[in-house]
Each structure stands twice: as structure tokens, then as C-alpha cells.
Amino acid sequence: MKLASRLAEVRVSPTVAISTRARELKAEGRDIIALAAGEPDFETPQHIRDAAKRAIDRGETRYTATEGIPELREAIAAKFKRDNGLDYTPDQVLVGVGGKQVIFNVMMATLDADDEVIIPAPYWVSYPDIVRLFGGKPVFVNTKPEEGFRLTPEALEQAITPRTRWLLLNSPSNPTGVMYSSVDLSGLGAVLKRHPQVLVLTDDIYEMLTYGTVEFQTFASVVPELHERTLTMNGVSKAYAMTGWRIGYGAGPKPLMAAMKKIQGQSTYHPCTIAQWAAVEALNGPQDVLETMLSTFTHRRKQTLDALNATEGINCVSPDGAFYIFASIQAHLGRRAPNGTVLQKDSDWVLALMEDQGVAVVPGSAFGTPGYFRLSFAAADDLLAEATRRIRNFVERLD
Ligand code: PLP
Fold first, then answer.
1. Residue 361: predicted pLDDT
2. Separation of 67 CA from ligand 1 center, angstroms?
3. What's the 114 CA to ligand 1 centre distance in angstroms?
4. In CATH, what class is 5-43+289-396?
5. Is domain 59-284 classified as CATH 3.20.20.220?
6. Average pLDDT, rounded, for the chain
7. pTM of the predicted model, to two decimals?
8. Atom of ligand 1 nearest to the CA of 100
9. What's the 274 CA to ligand 1 centre distance in angstroms?
10. Cα 217 to middle of ligand 1, angstroms
11. pLDDT given for residue 345 in this prediction
């Protein structure tokens, strides 16, 4: 089968690869605790599910406008005003099949061959591959643990070239949970003001999941002078436990939004009509569900951080937001796993942990930062307690 050459550089998502292996072991009867996936383990709140059922019964089962139903775009514009102090009109909003399609649309709309996109590492696994799919060149900037894994203005300045089209910012970050304060964002904004060819894509998908260490801020509201050069992306997947409904959204300058709409109109057309109505309820309905989920995550975060940090040779980044722990295992590399293999890389460590103890996590190298693993604490308390106990067991048996 001859496939398009543009696929040569694109990987299958490494997190999907780990989850697949975990499922295979499970199918063989192994007791696997899967902490590799990136989704809340809660059910979608009842009032949102009810809104979807009502939409079906009202007959909301036909095509909608490409950009999404007006009610949802109005709810999104109101959300941006309420939570972020951002002024977007509904005609600046595009609803996509998940935040992922918004990123996909924007890269397809703007990248020509060899255009550069600055991606601070560690990064969400899909960014570089979406950029490559459209012939773009991901330019990775390694952030440092001693700088809290945040991109500094100096590092940004060094990475910019005349070919730079985008800076990609993700706060709270997947995989580290690190957030950018308004001071951090202003510093980056000061650099970008000197480089008018660079646009900013902010991925705010974890906005609602923060633990009080840093106040959530989004770039366009901190640096209003660059509002017209910013695409603000967000969605309902993580905040409202709606990953499977596939609703994300973006807002930005009108010519950019029109180009993205043109692309979406020739691909998925629009996201599922019923899911759009569910998202209207998520954004306009009672918000106390967020607090309930957040207090559960707050407890799990502490429980898991404490247990991992008490394990020999594991050092965790304290996440400000999202539901991941990014932990260094550099001290274990070069040692021998219980089955005798030498752990040369983080992926050896992750595989050995899965085979020996049945705990699935993701190696840091998948996010561009080797020597770490990412664990999702979006799982029941007793599973997390058992997983951290097994990790300790594994570490104690390293030679
Ligand atoms: N951005 C980040 C950082 C993510 O972790 C994810 C999902 O894992 C997404 C975007 C995509 O979210 P969705 O397409 O479900 O809206």
C-alpha cells in the first residue's frame, strides 16, 4: 500500500501505544492498573446527560452550521468574558470535534512547508505530529526543572526565526501540571511584541483543574496588545468529564477563524449536534460539579505525590493544575529490573514496571523529556494507593 509521504514523520500517539499494551495484558488476565490515559474517571454530570437526551427528543438531530450552533457559540463567548475577561463575539468562535480538531484546523490553515512552530518541552504528545502533518517544523525548546519547566523569555527569543509562525503554550501543562503566572506570560509577551510574524496558540484545556498554587491566566487577557495574534483554545472534555462527547472550541481573529471554518467545512463539517447541546448545558448550567471533581482531584494529588516522593530515587514536579504527576526516575537508570534487563531509558523503566507490577504509566520521552514518567491521578483512591505501593515494590527490587 502506497501511503502519502506526509505520514512518514507522524507517530501513532505514544500514550495510545501504552494504553493498548495495557489492554492486551489485561485481556491475558493480568491485573493492570492503567494510569496512562488523559481523561477524568468521572461520569459526565447528570444534568449534562439530561440535556443531551432532551436534545434528541426535541429532534436536534440534523446538520448544524459548520462553526457550531449559535447557542453554544454564545455560551462560549459568555464563558470567555466571565472566566477570563476576554471579549470575543460569537462569530469569532469555532466549535470543533474536541480541542484537538481546533489545533488541527489552525495548523492546516496557517502552515506552509518548513514553517516553524515553537513547542516548549515537555509537551502534549500530539502537538509535534499535527505540525509535521502539514509540513511544518516543530522547534522544541527544552524547559528546565530548575526553572519550573516554564519557557523563559530568553529561551523564547533565541528560538524565534523569520520562519516562526506559532508559539504553542499549554497551561496547566500536560504532562507537568505546571502553570504560567501573569508575570511569566507578560515576559513572553514582551518578546513576542518584537516579532510580528509570530502568533500564539494557548491550549487552556485544563483551566478548571487547578490546585491553588498559581492563579490561572490566559495569554490574550494578560497581553491584550496581542489579542489579535492569539488563538485561545479550550473545551469541555477535561473540565466536565466529557472526553467522549468531542467538543472543543477556539476563538481568535476573524480572518483566522474564517480559514479554520473553511477547513472544518470540508472535513467533519461540525461536531455532533447532540453533543453541542450537551456542551451548552455544561457551560451555562450549574458549575458546582466542577468543585466536586476538583476536591476529589485535590485529595488524590496529595495522596499520590506524598507516596511517590517517599519512594527512593523518584522526584516529582508538584503540579499546579491538570491531573498528572511528572516524576524523575533518572536515579534508577543504569540499574537492573527484577527480570534482569538493564534500565537504560525511561521507556525500559515503564515497560519493566508494567510487566513486573502491572502499572501502566507513560515515559517522559513521549513528551520530549527523557528520564521521567507521567502518571495520571484520574483514578479511584484505592487504585492510586495500590499503584504507588506497587511502584515502591518495583523500585525496592531494582538491582
Ligand atoms: N490539549 C491537551 C494538552 C490535552 O491533554 C488534550 C487531551 O488529552 C487535548 C488538548 C485534547 O482534548 P480534546 O480533543 O478532548 O478536547
1. 97
2. 19
3. 25
4. alpha beta
5. no
6. 96
7. 0.96
8. 14
9. 20
10. 18
11. 94
Band of residue 378 on the pLDDT scale cut at 50, 70, 90: very high
Around ligand 1, the residues with Cβ closer than 6 Å are: 38, 98-100, 124, 170, 174, 203, 205, 235, 237, 243, 248
Residue 249 CA to residue 102 CA, distance in Å, equals 6
| Nearest protein Cα to ligand 1, atom 12 | 99
Where exactly are the structural domains of the chain? Answer: 5-43+289-396, 59-284
Distance 99 CA to ligand 1 centre (A): 6
- Tens digit of pLDDT for each residue in 252-270? 999 999 999 999 999 999 9
**What ligand 1 atom has the least distance to the C-alpha of 243?**
15
**Confidence check: pLDDT of 21 > 90:** no
User: To test the ligand 1 pocket, which listed residue (102, 238, 324) has its Cβ within 8 A of the most ligand atoms?
Assistant: 238
pLDDT in tens, 203-242: 999 999 999 899 999 999 999 999 999 999 999 999 999 9
Residue ID of nearest Cα to ligand 1 atom 8: 38
Give the model confidence (pLDDT) of 163-208 as tens digits: 999 999 999 999 999 999 999 999 999 999 999 999 999 999 999 9
Top mutation candidate among 18, 103, 126 for ligand 1, by most atoms within 8 Å of CB: 126
